[in-house]
Amino acid sequence: MHLLAHNGMLPSYPTAPGEKVGSARRKGVKQGATLMLIGAILVPIFGVMAGFAPGRLENVFAFFAALSAIICFVGGPLRMLFAALFEEGAKPQYVPGSSYMPPVLPAQPARVSALPPAAVNTQPWRSRPQTAEIMQPPISVTDHTTKLLEKDSEKE
Fold first, then answer.
1. Taking the CA atoms of the chain, what radius of gyration do you get in angstroms?
2. Which of 76, 91, 90, 97 lies closest to 34 in space, CA to CA?
3. Torsional class of 8: left (φ above 0), alpha (ψ -120 to 50), beta (otherwise)
4. pLDDT (tens digit, 9 = 90+) per residue, 18-54?
């Protein structure tokens, strides 16, 4: 429908130079992905630190490893899901493009005649052969059966 309404031109959506504004949905998905990547870094770091820490400090690092795993690996996908479902996407900004006229092709010389010369078509037309003269079809499909029944009734 859009192509018909705009004479076959596809819409172009140019952005202002130097200005890139993302939609809220895109920002939310990026935040969720960033949160998951941060979790992929933090959890192993806290796990290694818990392995090398002495005494009670080991429990603190294990607690932070578990807490960062829950926040990052559960919160990241939830943030992306929320952004994808509830936040507003980018608005399309229609800017009509310049009107495009296809180049005009030069006119081709017209053909004088598409048929061969008249001297070639001098043979007279033959009529179709009559193939029905060979054998005439029966009057009806049941003729043969009716004749057989008549013969049976004459015998009785």
1. 44
2. 76
3. left
4. 556 678 999 999 999 999 999 999 999 999 999 999 9
